[in-house]
């Protein structure tokens, strides 16, 4: 089978896939930590951007893609309540029944009934939507195809079961969408990398679904010319198991997370293909600063060391180039909005795409 199919099974097979089984994925007891688990500062900043869009839309809803533990939902709704800019509904698109149950428990425990009652869950994208779509570390978990550029031509790397274990197998790349996507990419021979037709399709679907509002996605990755740089000639595929990272997706199937970095140029192209306008692209650091993370820090006095020092340490992880600040990017596209987005007021790097 091709690798995209293998990755889909390994992550999402009912009852067996990584996101469908019952083990803890997120946080200190899981396999990795995301920005919402690090600090509520992240969700408060995202909420400020969401509030601006909701105000211009004149209402509307929030749709969160793959809400993980539910922590971002709690933080965004709490901040929107403080800003008096609550959405009509807060919808979560979650394909994992296990994660949905975890989200429901956290939301019921951490939000007052008036806010928890605004949250509902979807199994598929709605046909139309007005408001804000949020996605944090969603695209990196969408299945990818593996393509090898060689002196003999283009090959797709797939997976076979041999002698009781999974193994790699390459086949010449056949005519079709994957060949069309791979052919224009200019790399030297003996280069292996990822192409996510599914992520591109998701972004195009989001753009077509959106009537008015914005889609804001935060993830790790690069513009295309950096994504396919010779320094990444073995691709970006990574696996996460008990806070350890490695590059072998064929071990621990169903027990480990499998991810690939995001080609943000492809994301921008897919959004435009769906009829949306690209509204911003910058580092996570710049996005959070634009959305007021330093203002949130100033709410706590440095003289109160017990409260301030942990908050400052959390901000450091979110902002530092050595942590999440530069590898993670924010990208936004939208329809029907006249005002520039707050999160991209400074440091917008759309020109690099």
UniProtKB/TrEMBL annotation:
Example GO molecular function: protein-arginine omega-N symmetric methyltransferase activity
Gene3D superfamilies recorded: 3.40.50.12710
BP terms from Gene Ontology: methylation
Keyword Methyltransferase: yes
Keywords carried by this UniProt record: Methyltransferase, Transferase
Pfam families: Methyltransf_28
Name the UniProt record assigns to this protein: SAM-dependent methyltransferase
Organism of provenance: Novimethylophilus kurashikiensis
């Amino acid at each position: 089978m091709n690798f995209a199919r293998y990755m889909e099974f390994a992550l999402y097979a009912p009852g067996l896939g990584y996101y469908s089984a019952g083990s803890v994925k997120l946080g200190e007891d899981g396999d990795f930590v995301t920005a919402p688990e690090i600090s509520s500062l992240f969700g408060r900043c995202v909420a400020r951007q969401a509030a601006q869009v909701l105000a211009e839309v004149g209402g509307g809803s929030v749709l969160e893609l793959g809400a993980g533990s539910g922590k971002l939902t709690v933080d965004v709704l709490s901040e929107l309540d403080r800003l008096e800019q609550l959405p009509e509904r807060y919808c979560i698109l979650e394909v994992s029944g296990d994660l949905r149950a975890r989200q429901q428990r956290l939301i019921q425990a951490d939000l007052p009934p008036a806010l928890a009652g605004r949250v509902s869950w979807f199994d598929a994208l709605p046909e139309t939507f007005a408001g804000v779509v949020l996605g944090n570390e969603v695209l990196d978990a969408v299945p990818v195809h593996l393509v090898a550029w060689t002196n003999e031509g283009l090959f797709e790397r797939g997976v076979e079961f041999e002698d009781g274990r999974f193994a790699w197998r390459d086949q010449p790349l056949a005519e079709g969408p994957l060949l069309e996507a791979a052919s224009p990419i200019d790399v030297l021979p003996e280069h292996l990398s990822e192409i996510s037709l599914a992520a591109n399709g998701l972004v195009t679907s989001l753009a077509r679904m959106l009537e008015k509002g914005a889609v804001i996605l935060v993830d790790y990755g690069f513009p295309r010319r950096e994504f396919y740089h010779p320094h990444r000639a073995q691709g970006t595929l990574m696996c996460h198991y008990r806070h350890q990272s490695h590059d072998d997706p064929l071990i621990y199937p169903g027990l480990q997370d499998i991810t690939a970095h995001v080609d943000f140029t492809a994301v921008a192209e897919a959004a435009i293909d769906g009829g949306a306008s690209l509204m911003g692209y910058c580092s996570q650091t710049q996005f959070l600063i634009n959305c007021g993370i330093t203002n949130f820090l100033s709410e706590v006095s440095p003289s109160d060391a017990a409260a301030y020092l942990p908050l400052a340490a959390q901000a450091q992880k979110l902002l530092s180039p050595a942590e999440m600040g530069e590898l993670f990017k924010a990208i936004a596209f939208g329809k029907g909005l006249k005002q520039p987005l707050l999160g991209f007021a400074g440091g917008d790097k759309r020109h690099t795409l």
